[in-house]
Amino acid sequence: MRVFERLKAAAGDDWRSYTEHRFVAGLGDGTLPAAAFRTYLVQDYLFLIQFARAYALAVFKGRTLADMRSAHRGVSAILDVEMDLHVKLCAAWGLSPEMLEATPEARATTAYTRFVIDTGLRGDLLDLHVALSPCVIGYAEIARRLAAAPAGSAPENPYREWIAEYAGDAYQDVAASAIAKLDDLGAYSLTERRFEGLTAIFAQACRLEADFWQMGLDESR
Ligand SMILES: Cc1ncc(CN)c(N)n1
Question: What is the pTM of this model?
Answer without folding.
Answer: 0.96
